[in-house]
Design a protein that fits this description.
Blueprint: H1 7-19, H2 21-37, H3 70-78, E1 83-89, H4 92-105, E2 122-127, H5 131-136, H6 144-149, E3 158-161, H7 162-174, E4 185-186, E5 188-195, H8 201-211, E6 216-220, H9 223-231, H10 242-256, E7 258-259, E8 266-270, H11 279-285, E9 291-295, H12 298-305, H13 326-334, H14 348-369, E10 375-379, H15 380-388
Parallel strand pairs: 5-8, 5-9, 6-8, 9-10
Antiparallel strand pairs: 1-2, 2-3, 4-7
Helix pairs in contact: 1-14, 9-10, 10-11, 13-14
InterPro entries: P-loop_NTPase (IPR027417)
């Protein structure tokens, strides 16, 4: 199993650095600029991860928004007072039917892909996020779940049909009416952060937020993008096509990028580590958007993952599933291992190594052979020296 620890992938990443040297230099300049901007502020810390209790137990009940009608909720969404915080497939049959219809429409040159919504059966959950909490001190709410825990109305988010909301929002944003004064605008998607986990990605997200708190909005591992990338259409896109997944991703990012704060200009997303397996779909959705891949010595990642015991390690949890992820099977067999091996018999260390390899190898492939050369690999070991210069 030593060949599954990612060392070969790291060598490939090193070769890739030369290709993206110019982009990396730009990132270095940004990181160094942070030093002067936040010198007198509370320093960021990877270890500052407060464990907040889940506030999603009343999901869908409405909480303080329960008295609002559906029309009023939609209007608050269009005014960017309510934010998209989660999505869920509630009608799989409708989703598959719409997906098939969209595939047929792809051959029609008159089909307007941006105005039409090629999916159905997906529900969005909306509440008001208190962005001031995150902007004041990113390290106090480093993860999206921490932000929702400190946002009162997220006790009971409202449910709305995602496709209908997206269509209404696009119609509102395209309606140029000089008589209507509105502060609602769509933020520029500046960059997306992918990572291996336990590798400094939270530090990177906090840096992006701290560079210019008033102008930057940073989503750190929020559910909608990950669900759009892998959950909605299935790991192997058996429920709907990759093109549908890419469209859903564009739509959720669009909704999450709408703001009524005129000081905000840019939005960043840090995607959960599992989302790194779907970088190809992200690039299909946003071919011109820069993205980072934060990585670290695999031994250090494994030690961090398993520090609190194998049963508590995120990388080992899929091993308990009845059906193992296809990506895990694929990496296991690619390394020359027997296809008949029961992955449940692997040791936690072995399984965690295979899990990590599925993430790293996908990122390396996209860095080297992706359709767009927008990716930049970032080594965890280089973060601190850059900040201390």
């Amino acid at each position: 199993m030593k060949e599954n620890n990612g060392h070969a992938a790291r060598r490939a990443l090193s070769r890739r650095v030369g290709i993206v040297l110019v982009s990396f230099a730009v990132l270095l300049a940004i990181l160094l600029a942070v030093k002067s901007h936040v010198r007198h502020k509370k320093p960021f810390s990877l270890s500052t991860r407060p464990h907040q209790p889940s506030r999603w137990g009343t999901r869908g009940r409405g909480g303080s928004m329960a008295y609002l009608s559906e029309a009023e909720v939609l209007e608050d969404i269009l005014l960017a007072k309510l934010h998209l915080v989660d999505i869920r497939v509630e009608d799989a049959d409708a989703l598959q039917k719409a997906s098939k219809a969209s595939v047929t429409a792809d051959s029609n040159t008159s089909y307007d892909h941006e105005s039409a919504t090629p999916y159905a059966g997906i529900t969005g959950f909306f509440c008001t996020l208190d962005w001031s909490v995150h902007k004041l001190d990113p390290a106090s709410t480093p993860m999206f779940r921490d932000l929702t825990a400190k946002s009162a109305s997220c006790d009971g988010p409202r449910k709305m049909d995602l496709g209908k909301v997206v269509q209404a929002a696009r119609e509102r944003d395209s309606d140029i009416n000089p008589r209507r004064v509105s502060s609602v605008h769509v933020l520029n998607l500046a960059a997306v952060v992918f990572h291996e986990s336990r590798c400094g990605s939270t530090l990177v997200a906090n840096i992006l937020a701290g560079m210019n708190p008033a102008a930057h909005r940073v989503y750190s591992e929020s559910p909608p993008p990950l669900h759009a990338l892998k959950t909605v259409c299935g790991e192997d896109y058996s429920h709907c096509a990759k093109t549908i997944s890419a469209r859903i991703l564009r739509d959720v990012v669009y909704l999450m990028s709408r703001s009524n704060d005129l000081k905000e200009t840019r939005v960043f997303f840090k995607v959960q580590s599992l989302g790194s397996r779907n970088i190809e779909v992200f690039q299909q959705a946003f071919p011109a958007t820069p993205w980072l891949f934060v990585y670290r010595d695999p031994v250090e990642i494994l030690m961090s993952q398993l520090a609190n015991g194998p049963r508590n390690a995120n990388c080992v949890r899929p091993q308990r599933l009845h059906t193992q992820p296809t990506s895990v099977h694929r990496v296991w067999q690619h390394r020359g291992s027997s296809a008949t091996t029961n992955l449940k018999t692997l040791s936690p260390e072995e399984y965690c190594a295979v899990h990590l390899a599925t993430i790293t190898e996908t990122a390396v492939e996209q860095l080297q052979y992706g359709s767009q050369l927008q990716g930049v690999p970032i080594n965890y070991a280089s973060l601190k020296p850059m900040l201390l210069k």
